[in-house]
Write a structure and sequence with these properties.
heterodimer, A: about 120 residues, 6 helices, B: mainly alpha, globular
Amino acid sequence: MRAFVLFFLIVASGTGGELCVSRAMRSMGEIHDFRPQSIFRFVLRGLQLPWMWIGIAMMSVGFFSLLTILSFRDVSFVVPVSALSYAAGAFGARAFLGERISRNRWLGIAVVCIGVTIVWWSGR
Amino acid sequence: MTQKPGLHLKTYLAVLVIVIFAPLGSVLLGKGMKTIGSATAWRVQDLFPVLIKILSNGYIWLGICSLLTFFVAYMLILSWADYSYVQPSTAMSYATVAILSHFVLGEVVSPLRWAGVLVICAGVFIVGRTSPRAHGAH
């Protein structure tokens, strides 16, 4: 039960957080200048956006859940199981960010999910 | 669709940074947390001492540094590429995780698990052949 709750937090909070960060970054536009000071300014600008902080808060919950489960499970088991976020991410990107996901990309996501499921079975 | 020159190159470079530093971070965190003790034995009153142990562990900080490097690369790539492209592309991390878990942490990675990793890589190859920015294509 403890592991189930932790995996749920890793997947739900981690994916939700990434979607929020993605929404914040998309609102800033594409970066073209890759000098360190420009990247630093870009990151600082990002930190002024509410979506960024909501994303960071959700990702923090996911991070501490990950730390907790890593204390009693193998890394090579925990990381593949947390890839349940692939399906959640694709649906979330479509619903929350309005991204159009091509048939080929869905196919790739499906194959990735099959792979991580096999990895998950190997750890049972 | 008009593709900007260098869009694919900088996307691949960012994905490379992501697939190295994200797994390295997980492995370092795993190594650090294993020295702290299993969470199954934690009680509510242990939370503060455990937090102190976590924050004073060198492997945890190295893991956090790796994850910060990954996070900056992730933020940058999301400014020009679709999330639904970026997230599956980072699945290559699973190959790195399996390799690092075996050689650094000494975890037993079974043939079935390696097979799963190969399937993941095939999925990444399919995703990598799609445009990083589908919403500009119509």
